[in-house]
Amino acid sequence: MEKKLLIAASIILNLRFTIHSLYNNFSIWSPTWTNRAAGEAEAAAYVSCSGHGRAYLDGIGVLDGHKPPCECNNCYTGKDCSILLQDCPVDADSGDPLFLEPFWIGKAEESAVVESGWHRMSYQFEELGSFDSAELERIIKKLHNVVGNAVTDDRFIIFGTGATQLIAASVHALSLTNSSSSSSPSRLVSSVPYYNMYQQQAEFFRSAHLKFEGDAHVWKQRNDNITQVIEIVTSPNNPDGKAKRAVLDGPNVKTIHDYAYYWPYFTPITHQVDEDLSLFSLSKTTGHAGSRFGWALVKDKAVYERMKTYITLSSMGVSRDTQLRVLQLLKVVIDDGGDEIFNFGYGTLKKRWEIVNKILSMSTRFSLETKKPEYCNYFKRVRDFTPSYAWVKCERLEDINCYEIFKAAKITGRNGQEFGTEERFVRLSLIKSQNDFDQLSNMLKKLVSQEHVGADSI
Amino acid sequence: MEKKLLIAASIILNLRFTIHSLYNNFSIWSPTWTNRAAGEAEAAAYVSCSGHGRAYLDGIGVLDGHKPPCECNNCYTGKDCSILLQDCPVDADSGDPLFLEPFWIGKAEESAVVESGWHRMSYQFEELGSFDSAELERIIKKLHNVVGNAVTDDRFIIFGTGATQLIAASVHALSLTNSSSSSSPSRLVSSVPYYNMYQQQAEFFRSAHLKFEGDAHVWKQRNDNITQVIEIVTSPNNPDGKAKRAVLDGPNVKTIHDYAYYWPYFTPITHQVDEDLSLFSLSKTTGHAGSRFGWALVKDKAVYERMKTYITLSSMGVSRDTQLRVLQLLKVVIDDGGDEIFNFGYGTLKKRWEIVNKILSMSTRFSLETKKPEYCNYFKRVRDFTPSYAWVKCERLEDINCYEIFKAAKITGRNGQEFGTEERFVRLSLIKSQNDFDQLSNMLKKLVSQEHVGADSI
Question: What cofactor is this protein dependent on (chains A, B) (predicted)?
Fold first, then answer.
């Protein structure tokens, strides 16, 4: 009897395992054709780079069958990025939004995307002639609705290969409304300090319809109310993080609003923007600068059509691979109404700003533009001033070139001159990786402490 | 004794299953964080669309939790694309390279890519300042070496968001070598028939440095050997598939070679091209038009640097998501030296051309430009003339507008006028899906058969 029971029990147990393993092997949740790719992605993720670097599937040497190598953060080296280079120059130049990387590593399962070899091979989505994913358009509208930072009703949405492409597309589209019969090209202006991409594009592409004219305030004096003008308003502003308003108005003025930084990480959400032409960038929304994705909200159909023509003739739309990935990333963001990512990102920048403020408060040589805490409709509470960049001024008369002063102290920022203003200013990026920020704060401490050494020696 | 044995056996069996299932759950080859994404991709792949459509991960309704819907091929409808619309107009307009889709479905496991949420968030690859993957550059050189269609030694490679962006970048870069002091802009020419994108870009972007001048042969008469000229040579040519040579030369002439179609599917590989500036497109290499990826091989460093500036200012490089995928796709292509994909693609086009030739051989109303079979260095044998498009001429005096003749017969091609030549010509795309081609050949048969009805009735 006892013997029969034991055997019965073991048979049941065996059956359980048999069914379990059959299920694992044959249910669609046990990958078949995705297995190799999944294994490779997981293997790359398991490569340890000591928390000071990252191994990527397309790292150097993978074609030779080597496992993806560690790509070390600035100032770290060695096979596993475990060696910290002493007295290494800090890079605080670019707006590389890696401060959000830890969030995405924490969302590994939710954010992963598997792309089949036959995914969207066509030029067009089902809706004949469209280069843009309709579902992606929908989730972008949802995102704006949960954040409350932009009106999306009765707006056309157009995608770009980064906001970069959309700046060029919108400026070009608006310059064309200038009757080509008119001999005089549209003037492009922005109030200083401004993001230098506007100027660089206009001067390099050299459209016969457009001329970069510099500071909007200067133009305001000369405004003849006839010459067509395009003003770009960046709010919050790059480099100084301040809310910015259009300087010009009138029947001859068209305005582009660059809202790349109008997200709860960087600035209080005070209202839903409702402009004729607004630009947004994935880089500053989720931190995926490498994906090259941005979007524009456009009120006027004619302008939208001209922007579409621009995007079509310059790239035939945005990579469908990227559109698939962005859809998944934004799903993760809005899943909890943005709660997790915006709190994570704001929390990170808040800590960094507290450190930078503390260090520079000890200085009389360098001043930092800041703003009082403000109420944010998204967080439903007062929040600190935590823009992407520290906009620093060198106060000493002899410190004419602030960039060079910092460069000498082994901190590479971006020269104020590149933003159409004085060399007395330098922009320091605070949105890079934690390693980058830690190096920056250490070098800043050193630089500021020298003031007091100087003071003591007097 | 017997009882002990049975229990021992069952324990061993249980252990086996326990270990097996533990292995499945914890070894890196049993995905963990990639599991959800893999399951979703496999589920989308399992959606049956009756072989007349495809369901994609980002299809309409997925945000509402619906499973990806079937997106039906032209002339098919119904939830599972099983309904063929009778007497439905054929679309033979675009160069959508879906003839290669069955190859990639057959390579599901080899070509799948899993992208993590933190993959390449930065603007740059490890090599500071680079927007382009070094491994991708390497495999592109390998590809050219195995196919033998281009010299890659001592060449700079630059990526673009489709060859589309590279056409604009190369034309702009070459127009800038024209000293901006010179009052006269560079002239852009191409011998007719030419791909109309060249003209559309030049006329829409309206660079102060460039003017589209039309047919290279016409310009040759007017060539003053002083005015700077840029000639684009498309070989094999779009639309007519013929090998093309530069018409102009001289110290004032710069040449761009568009080799988008110089692959063994379309044309014999007769030599390794070795030009100053050559363009290639992933769309016509692997069939992934939607990925928007192309590359240029550039001899001159100054030209390369100006093209890089163009790509930087217009999009800050190509999506890193796309670069990861393209690396995997090209791995599959060169794994067997291109044997499988090029034979598959050439075989498909060969069959299609045999059908089209047979149908049009019955016609006196329509003539088709063809070429004798030629030896291909890649296949190491003589191959037929199988370009991407049928370039058809309407021979009857009264058939002035060939596009309209075909349109009336429910076949949408592309008007010869769009290629800078007569309306007597129409371009029919032969590289779309098998469904598209079958519909085209049926409608063509109908159209041609009407000639004989006419003849009989005389």
Answer: pyridoxal 5'-phosphate
Q: How many domains does chain A have?
A: 4
Chain A residues in contact with B58 by the CB 8 A cut-off are 120, 133, 135-136, 323-324, 327
pLDDT band for position B382 (cuts 50, 70, 90): very high
- Burial (CB < 10 A; 0-12, 13-18, 19+), residue A458, is exposed
Chain A with chain B: Cβ pairs closer than 8 A: 389
State mean pLDDT over A78-93: 95
**Pick from A31, A136, A322: which is nearest to B39 by CB?**
A31
Residue of B174, B206, B307, B332 for testing the chain A interface, max A β-carbons within 10 Å? B206
Q: Is the same domain home to A290 and A384?
A: no
Q: Are residues A173 and A244 both part of a single domain?
A: yes
Range of the domain at A375: 339-457
B278-331 pLDDT, tens per residue? Answer: 999 999 999 999 999 999 999 999 999 999 999 999 999 999 999 999 999 999
Question: CB count, 10 Å around CB of B335?
Answer: 13
Please give the torsion angle defined by the CA atoms of residues B218, B223, B227 and B232, in that order, rounded to the nearest 10 degrees: 50
**Whether residues B188 and B292 fall in one domain:** yes
The domain that contains A356 carries what CATH number?
A: 3.90.1150.10
Q: What's the ipTM? A: 0.92
The pLDDT of residue B452:
77
Residue B408 included in any domain: yes
Instruction: Tell whether the model's pLDDT for residue A456 goes beyond 60.
Output: no
Q: Which residue has the higher pLDDT, A301 or B125?
A: A301
